Amino acid sequence: MTTPQNPVPNVNTVNRGLPAGKMPELRMMPAPSDANVYGDVFGGWIMAQVDIAGSLPATRRANGRVATIAVNSFVFKNPVFVGDLLSFYADIVKVGNTSITVQVEVYAERNRLQTNTVKVTEATLTYVATDSDRKPRKVPSIETLIGA
Ligand SMILES: CC(C)(COP(=O)(O)OP(=O)(O)OC[C@H]1O[C@@H](n2cnc3c(N)ncnc32)[C@H](O)[C@@H]1OP(=O)(O)O)[C@@H](O)C(=O)NCCC(=O)NCCS
Fold first, then answer.
1. Ligand 1 pocket, 71 CB below 6 A?
2. Per residue in 76-94, pLDDT tens?
3. Percent of the chain, pLDDT > 90?
4. What is the pTM of this model?
5. Residue 65 near ligand 1, beta carbon < 6 Å
6. CA 16–ligand 1 middle distance (angstroms)
7. Can you give the pLDDT at residue 146?
8. Atom 24 of ligand 1, residue of closest alpha carbon
9. Alpha-carbon distances of 81 from 22, 34, 145, rounded to whole Å
10. Which domain holds residue 71?
11. Domain of 37: which CATH number?
12. Can you tell me whether residue 68 is helix, strand or coil?
């Protein structure tokens, strides 16, 4: 078998200014209908996506439903524009008795060209594991989750 002389670089593995070695929970592209009257993307639209992204690791850790109890902090560091490709990274930073706190960071690849990537948002949210009556329930231990 011959090796290609000039292999085409895999653009997915090129460092595009996104956090190395991490998988985003969500990737989204805001549309014109997500923009405010000035043409930039609504903060409320970004907050909704951040809430969804943060709930994903919380739901996995809780092994079931969660409800958002608090948005502890939320910073819009840079504007988001229609057509930006957004990547939402979410990490659990604290597990309590019934609560799970998640930090979410959002990066924008401007105009999908992957040449200008900026962090646009940082937030910390707390979720509560809830039962079928929507009451708080204890977060299961890691041992229970992995069946040890
Ligand atoms: C989530 C809910 C079931 C929790 O019930 P609750 O009786 O208020 O809960 P508690 O006071 O027992 O607190 C539960 C946990 O949240 C934490 N918590 C409470 N208020 C908090 C706040 N302002 N910030 C961060 N954590 C908070 C508590 O410390 C506790 O954590 P721990 O068990 O790990 O110590 C209830 O508040 C609720 O239904 N809220 C509405 C949720 C909702 O509609 N969200 C939007 C859509 S998902």
1. no
2. 999 999 999 999 999 999 9
3. 77
4. 0.91
5. no
6. 37
7. 85
8. 70
9. 24, 9, 40
10. 23-146
11. 3.10.129.10
12. strand
